[in-house]
């Protein structure tokens, strides 16, 4: 792109990886909505709110990723069938226990973070600082969300025993 001072041929791998991330985020977004609608049990209120927060964030990121692809002079993938083909994430039933929902999301986070790191690498090779900056912020935010979900899913009694044993040492 002339106005970006980046060779268009060098952007092709970045676009490919951004489109994969876009597909991942669409699957993740829909999974979050499904979990939000279908969560049951004693943790309903906490998770219903958290899932809505996460899918609101994912919706914003979907738009930003697509707009980044457009900024780089290409068109984002926009068919759900293509998202299903290109994503490393899998659809799952929402009729699972709440702890399994959280484990599923943590697994998705791991895959999404892996994809984001690919983008950082390919964008670095292309000299695409804008994509590096965008995705770097996403990594930080998703790592924090992962930490919080992981903390929620821990067995409190086990964690307290570990904490007590390390304090008394």
From TrEMBL:
Pfam families in alphabetical order: Ferritin
GO molecular function annotations of the record: ferric iron binding; oxidoreductase activity, acting on metal ions
Signal sequence interval, chain numbering: none
Domain Ferritin/DPS: 15-155
Highest taxon in the source lineage: Bacteria
CDD domains: DPS
Matches recorded under SUPFAM superfamilies: Ferritin-like
Family: Belongs to the Dps family.
PANTHER family: GENERAL STRESS PROTEIN 20U
Identification of the protein by name: DNA starvation/stationary phase protection protein
Organism: Aggregatimonas sangjinii
């Amino acid at each position: 792109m002339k106005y970006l001072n980046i060779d268009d041929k060098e952007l092709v791998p970045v676009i490919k990886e951004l489109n994969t991330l876009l597909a991942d985020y669409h699957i993740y977004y829909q999974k979050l909505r499904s979990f939000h609608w279908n969560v049951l049990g004693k943790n309903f209120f906490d998770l219903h709110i958290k899932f809505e927060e996460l899918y609101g964030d994912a919706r914003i990121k979907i738009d930003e990723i697509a707009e980044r692809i457009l900024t780089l002079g290409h068109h984002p993938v926009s068919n759900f069938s293509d998202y299903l083909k290109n994503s490393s994430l899998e659809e799952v039933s929402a009729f699972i226990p709440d702890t399994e929902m959280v484990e599923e999301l943590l697994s998705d986070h791991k895959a999404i973070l892996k994809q984001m790191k690919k983008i950082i690498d390919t964008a670095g090779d292309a000299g695409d600082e804008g994509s590096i900056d965008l995705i770097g912020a996403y990594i930080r935010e998703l790592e924090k969300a992962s930490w919080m979900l992981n903390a929620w899913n821990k067995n409190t009694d086990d964690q307290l025993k570990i904490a007590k044993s390390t304090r008394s040492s």
